[in-house]
Write a structure and sequence with these properties.
The protein is 42% helix and 26% strand. It is α+β, with helices and mostly antiparallel strands and 199 residues long. It folds into 2 domains: 98 residues, Jelly Rolls, CATH 2.60.120; 83 residues, Winged helix-like DNA-binding domain superfamily/Winged helix DNA-binding domain (Arc Repressor Mutant, subunit A, Orthogonal Bundle), CATH 1.10.10.10. A hairpin with a 5-residue loop joins strand 4 and strand 5. The protein is globular.
């Protein structure tokens, strides 16, 4: 196992690179994405401390990964992980739980992109980050948003302008509070949850 530090906006690996390593994030934020045929980028997720990165059953990575902020990773050879799964059976259960969570997240994103309005998408995204932080033992309010509005737009299938307008409107309505250091306070959590559910 080796600890590596990655500067903001630097690649960790690219889609189709040989999947030689698996990573755990110990500090920072990572975005994972796929490049579309026309060169556009579709962000498929954001990963935080405690998340695994690079898990695959294929010989190549299925997506690209990039650090959003200064990020620290523990990197270990994939073959070593496979050997550990034989030696430590409960580790396989842990990885299965991670894979199940990733599948649920992918289904949530499909719902975001397919059925929700721009307002519902932005609110759902903010609440998703809040829930993820709480799940990893970090404060869920205020919500830390290390990604840019453009990154959020690429994830939600919106324009950057739409994301900015929606955040501004949520602030004017007293639903959120824009704080320093890329943080958003959840002023009216129950109302935000209702919006995310389409009420």
């Amino acid at each position: 196992m080796r600890t590596i530090n990655v500067e903001p906006h630097c690649s960790i690996f690219d889609e189709t690179d040989p999947a030689e390593y698996v990573y755990t994030i110990t500090a920072g934020t990572v975005t994972v994405y796929k490049l579309l045929g026309d060169g556009r980028r579709q962000i498929t997720g954001f990963l935080f401390p405690g998340d695994f990165l690079g898990l695959t059953h294929n010989e190549a990575y299925a997506y690209s990964a990039e650090a959003l902020v200064p990020t620290r990773l523990c990197r270990f050879p994939r073959r070593r992980l496979e050997a550990l799964l034989v030696e430590i059976p409960h580790l396989e259960q842990r990885l299965l739980a991670i894979a199940s969570h990733e599948l649920a997240a992918a289904q949530d994103q499909m719902m975001l992109l397919g059925r929700k309005s721009a307002r519902e998408r932005v609110v759902s995204f903010i609440l998703m980050l809040s829930n993820s932080a709480a799940r990893h033992g970090r404060p869920g309010d205020p919500v830390f948003l290390p990604m840019s509005r453009s990154d959020i737009a690429d994830y939600l299938g919106l324009t950057t302008e739409t994301v900015s307008r929606t955040v501004t409107l949520l602030k004017k309505q007293g639903l959120i509070e824009l704080l320093d250091d890329k943080q958003i306070g959840l002023s009216r959590l129950s109302a935000l949850r209702e919006i995310a559910e389409g009420f």
